[in-house]
């Protein structure tokens, strides 16, 4: 009797296993074709998302792509065929427009009108207060949105005794400048430039990556006329991003020119570029639906340097000695 029950139980279990396997196989052959993402399915999904804008995933993917020719990233190419890639490229070219694109030489890189990703009012107010800054040179200033802020802020702080200068390579940006009286038009691919005055600080956002490395000497000559240097650099492609490197590369380059990297000051400066919604002090930022800031170039890739030329104070004797050397080349 007991042996018969055991035999029946074994048969029952075997039947259950057989049924389960059979149902699984049937599901695979009948249902899975609709779920499999072959090339045709990927193509239609990609184009549908691009043309109709209904697929959040594809829109996020499109917005995340950054390269020199507005081409999709390698990750995107893995899951998209050539037709979807081309459609995505064309859509991005409709969205992304740069000032100067139809007027300036391509190597100047263009400029974005009122780019809030580089507008760091909280950082500027903090750094000006910490170092009691009274003069600022804005290198790669575009139309001069940041320069305009420096002018107004320093004018109020120093009762009209501010010294602000905007240096820009795009003729289109200079023609539309908010501060034409403070703007210098200079293309660093054509040679160096430096002002007569010495500045407390240089601000240069999204400029370095647009200038070929062979012309680095030209803008470093400009930076030499400032005591404190705040710069950003790109780590991805873009229109004429010909000098794209990580921070250690830029730190080594700047230090080879005599500037001293300030890691702690850099970290403090980045902390004054808030990203979380509850820390946003001003309303000009481009934010997400949750109220968080979308991007801050300095918070991600900003660096602070001190100019070694100004690390020591000169006595009156030093100044008189240098003046005498300058007046008498045969002094030695």
TrEMBL record:
Residues 138-213 form the Methyltransferase type domain. It comes from Reticulomyxa filosa. It comes from the Eukaryota. This is Methyltransferase type 11 domain-containing protein. InterPro entries: Methyltransf_11 (IPR013216), SAM-dependent_MTases_sf (IPR029063). The chain crosses the membrane at residues 12-31. Keywords: Membrane, Transmembrane, Transmembrane helix. It holds the Pfam family Methyltransf_11. The keyword Ribonucleoprotein does not apply. Signal peptide: none annotated. GO terms for molecular function: S-adenosylmethionine-dependent methyltransferase activity.
């Amino acid at each position: 009797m007991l042996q018969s029950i055991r035999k029946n139980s074994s048969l029952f279990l075997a039947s259950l296993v057989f049924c389960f396997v059979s149902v699984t196989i049937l599901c695979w052959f009948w249902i899975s074709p609709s779920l499999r993402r072959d090339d045709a399915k990927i193509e239609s999904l990609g184009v549908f998302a691009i043309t109709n804008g209904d697929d959040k995933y594809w829109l996020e993917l499109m917005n995340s792509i950054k390269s020199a020719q507005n081409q999709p990233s390698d990750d995107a190419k893995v899951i998209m065929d050539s037709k979807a890639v081309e459609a995505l490229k064309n859509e991005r070219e409709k969205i992304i427009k740069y000032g100067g694109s139809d007027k300036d030489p391509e190597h100047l890189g263009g400029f974005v009108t009122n780019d809030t990703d580089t507008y760091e009012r909280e950082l500027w107010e903090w750094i000006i207060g910490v170092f009691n800054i009274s003069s600022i040179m804005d290198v790669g200033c575009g139309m001069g949105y940041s320069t305009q802020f420096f002018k107004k802020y320093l004018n109020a702080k120093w009762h009209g005794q501010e010294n602000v200068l905007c240096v820009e390579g795009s003729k289109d940006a200079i023609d539309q400048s908010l501060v034409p009286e403070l703007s210098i038009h200079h293309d660093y691919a054509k040679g160096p430039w430096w002002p007569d005055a010495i500045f407390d600080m240089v601000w240069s956002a999204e400029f370095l990556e647009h200038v070929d490395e062979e012309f680095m000497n030209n803008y470093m000559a400009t930076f030499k006329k400032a005591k404190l240097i705040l710069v950003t650099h790109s780590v991805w492609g873009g229109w004429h991003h010909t000098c794209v490197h990580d921070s250690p590369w830029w730190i080594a380059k700047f230090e080879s020119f005599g500037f001293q990297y300030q890691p702690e000051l850099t970290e403090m400066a980045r902390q004054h570029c808030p990203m979380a919604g509850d820390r946003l002090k001003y309303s000009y930022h481009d934010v997400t639906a949750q109220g968080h800031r979308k991007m801050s170039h300095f918070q991600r890739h900003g660096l602070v340097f001190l100019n070694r030329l100004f690390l020591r104070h000169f006595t009156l004797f030093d100044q008189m000695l240098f003046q005498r050397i300058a007046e008498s080349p045969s002094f030695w």
